[in-house]
Amino acid sequence: MSNLFEEVHREYTLFRNRDALSPHYIPSHLPYREDEIRLLSQKIAPILSGKKPENIFIYGKTGTGKTAVTKKVLNDLNEYAERKGLPVKGLYINGRMYDSEHKVIMRLVKMLVPSAELMGYSTSSIYDMLMEDVDRRERRLVVALDEIDMVKRVGDLIYRLNRANDELERGSISIIGISNNPLFKDRLDARTKSTLCEVELVFPPYNAEQLRTILKERVEEAFHKGVVEEDAISLAAAYAARNAGDARYALQVMLRAGDIAEEEGAKKVGREHVERARRLVEEDIVYEMISTLPEQHRLLIAALASMIVKGVGVETFGKGKVITSGMLYSNYKRLAQERGITPVSDRWFREYLNELETYGIIEVHVAGKGFRGNTRLIELIPDAKKIVSLMERGVI
DNA sequence: CATCCACCGGAAATAGGGGGGC
DNA sequence: GCCCCCCTATTTCCGGTGGATG
Q: Which residues of A in 366-395 have their CB below 7 Å from strand B's atoms?
């Protein structure tokens, strides 16, 4: 008789359009990004007259609107090109999901030729299909590679995509690389760097006032009128400003605050909701970052976090206790054995360290004086205690 | 100053999963 | 089913590196 969903399906009373706060939502108006939008579209515009735009590298911290701006510009480009009947196409690919040369090229072909069956083909044969299609249809492509730092051997990918322009007579491929990792650019070899970074765009973080405006606009879309108190918005903006001007963080806090208020049947969203929401969001962020990593990476981080919490490390004059890669490796091995997981060799362990560094989860410095040779010191970016508590709850 | 140490990172080898073609 | 190809993950091997050590 009674359906399970009778109970759980409840109409939102506070939210009007909850999605407007989701990280995937692209608002029609992006405040304080007018310059970036204009610049980006100007740089891409030559494509409409048949010229190949320069490759563009976009850098900016998390939540500075890189993705939203890029998607918006590409959407408009596609809409315009379609209206004018031009063979121009902007394609968006997220490097976290498509994290190898093979996957990216496969994805490109899939987007251009949805019917293509690509399983089992080598990268170069898929690349040839891409070339064939671009050439035959005289396509002019802009490929936006978001979170480009997550893609393995990006150099090869960029080289290959760029080389297309030499091989093709009738089409072109331009690249927009997007990253929030300041180390990424410097890790590229000189040739890749000069290829990708023909144009560079830096997105500055938002300040508290700007965050407030942004939040206000979204809140108007997301909630019913008058539901969210002015204070609540300011507080969320202030938190986000302190958190490197991260607008996504601000929106996430607001979303959570709305959920909390909704859940307890409150009529309004106020400061207390925002405050509680912030805690949740902070845990979410650490959790998100770590839970999506492969097992061995998580293990490594768990080992590192527990060492930091326990205060294990070598005492140095300047920086308090530090952890060398060798120490971390033995600790990691121990933890792996405790959990019945076979640890990887020290060589591969070093690869993991490098990966985690490019993800921005750890930071690595050459030890230099006081340590032998090239020993590196490992630093954990997120809060070690939070990670350990997640470990204890068995989440990691 | 020669040698040692603790680690670095490139290269080649190996294992294994997935597919295609026959 | 068998053989081969391609990609990915990982191990093995090994020649650096650069400060520490005696």
A: 372-376
pLDDT grade for A79, boundaries at 50, 70 and 90: very high
Mean pLDDT score of chain A, rounded to an integer? 87
Nucleic acid strand C within 7 Å of A348 CB: yes
The reply to whether A342 Cβ lies less than 7 angstroms from strand B is: no
A36 burial level (CB within 10 Å; 0-12, 13-18, 19+)? buried
- Average pLDDT of the residues in A226-249: 92
The CATH code of the domain that includes A101 is: 3.40.50.300
CATH code for position A237: 1.10.8.60
Question: Euclidean distance between the first and final Cα of chain A, in Å?
Answer: 40
User: A352 CA to C14 C1', in Å?
Assistant: 20
Q: Is A187 in the same domain as A43?
A: yes
Cα–Cα separations (whole angstroms), residue A195 to A39, A89, A189, A203, A322? 19, 21, 10, 20, 38
Structural domain count of chain A? 3
One domain, residues A181 and A69: yes
- Give me the half-sphere count of Cα atoms (radius 13 Å) on the Cβ side of residue A142: 33
A64 lies in the same domain as A181: yes
Domain of A332, in residue numbers = 295-392
Question: What value does the mean pLDDT take over residues A316-324?
Answer: 71
A122 touches strand C (CB under 7 A): yes
Same domain for A388 and A310: yes
pLDDT digits (tens, 9 = 90+) for A193-223: 888 889 999 999 999 999 999 999 999 999 9
Question: Within this chain, do residues A227 and A302 fall inside the same structural domain, yes or no?
Answer: no
**Residue closest to C9, CA→C1'?**
A348
Residue nearest to nucleotide C19 (CA to C1'): A372
Query: Is residue A394 over pLDDT 80?
Result: no
- Both A128 and A271 in a single domain? no
**DSSP E strand boundaries for chain A:** 56-60, 88-94, 140-146, 172-179, 199-203, 314-316, 320-324, 362-366, 376-380
Per residue in A26-61, pLDDT (tens digit) is: 888 899 999 999 999 999 999 999 899 999 999 999
Distance A345 CA to B14 C1' (A): 14
